[in-house]
Amino acid sequence: MIGSNTHNENRRKSKTKKIGSVLQRDLVDILQTAATQGGMRGVIISVSKVSVTVDLSVAKVYLSIFPNDKAKELVEGIKSNQPFIRHELAQRTRNQLRRMPQLYFFVDDSLEHIDKIEQSLKGTDNPLKDPDLFGKRKKS
Length: 140
Hints:
- The chain contains four helices and three strands.
- The protein is an alpha+beta fold.
- The protein has a three-stranded mixed sheet with strand order 1-2-3.
- The longest helix is centred in the N-terminal third of the chain and has 36 residues.
- The protein starts with a helix and ends in an 18-residue tail after the last helix.
- The model has no long low-confidence stretch (mean pLDDT about 85).
């Protein structure tokens, strides 16, 4: 019986990954098009990861935004337009998904964090000796 539980769990994980990939591909197009049409030329929005819960009710969407100083403002705008984005996504995926998960958007700051580490290692600050240099990162 243990084998069948593992098999079911692997199938569920595989399914959530596939759904995450479908959502990721379509979200990139929706968000980048909206930014361009909204007059935000020169802004690049990339969806670095979509994590879907096993029950398919929630999708956490991690966004990398360039230039980084626009990230917070853009994510707030995206959050306020979440119903429209969710509807547009549902239209695009209606043949693949029965139910559209609730979308939650987060800034993916991993590239910025890596850049800070690289800069510190090149300079005199050493995050290995002083871990407080970077503050605490929130896990979402």
